[in-house]
Hints:
CATH superfamily: P-loop containing nucleotide triphosphate hydrolases
Largest sheet: 6 strands, parallel
Helix content: 40-55%
CATH topology: Rossmann fold
Bound molecules: adenosine-5'-triphosphate, magnesium ion
Structural class: alpha/beta
Low-confidence stretches: none
Strand content: 5-15%
Number of strands: 6
Amino acid sequence: xxxxxxxxxxxxxxxxxxxxxxxxxxxxxxxxxxxxxxxxxxxxxxxxxxxxxxxxxxxxxxxxxxxxxxxxxxxxxxxxxxxxxxxxxxxxxxxxxxxxxxxxxxxxxxxxxxxxxxxxxxxxxxxxxxxxxxxxxxxxxxxxxxxxxxxxxxxxxxxxxxxxxxxxxxxxxxxxxxxxxxxxxxxxxxxxxxxxxxxxxxxxxxxxxxxxxxxxxxxxxxx
Length: 223
Ligand SMILES: Nc1ncnc2c1ncn2[C@@H]1O[C@H](COP(=O)(O)OP(=O)(O)OP(=O)(O)O)[C@@H](O)[C@H]1O
Ligand SMILES: [Mg+2]
């Protein structure tokens, strides 16, 4: 099982939207995905409540339960765990980063968002985990995009090559518990999420998997 944490100290940057859409993309790719909702606002869980399909599974949990429940998910055959972290909560961000194989940091292309992203990057320096900043709510064009990309480069952070546009399909889909690619399969939002999912899979392939070895050993010692 691979673990992706979606972390940003800034609120409303698209963390939950990406967590749910990536989980749906993984399921469409034949994987079993689960979302661990660490946010007391429980947005991912509300999304699941309005969703007709039972998958991907969403568990609203306190961060103190994360390790145990990730382990249980791995043992039950989950392929991809997505951790949806809340804003303004350093301790929870640390806990999420600690368990992650890869960290996605959604950021809007705007000055105040870049400043907030700097704080998130500082937190993440405590862990030498692969990570990438993904730009969300991107306008069609404008110097904000190139300025933000430049700032990310200056900070030494990795920029995800996929930009997520400011698209109504994301919020419309959520009203009925869908992901944007389910709401409008041929739309731009769907294209972006599928590209982001493929990018993430490539990053995860590089990750050496110690947990799986441990789980396999534990299973072998039980039999
Ligand atoms: N790329 C996008 N384009 C347009 N609207 C979006 C996009 N991404 C998310 N939204 C909408 O913006 C709002 C905030 O998104 P979301 O809840 O995913 O952010 P968040 O970072 O998880 O927020 P919080 O920090 O409160 O947990 C939601 O209404 C969502 O539908
Ligand atoms: Mg959220």
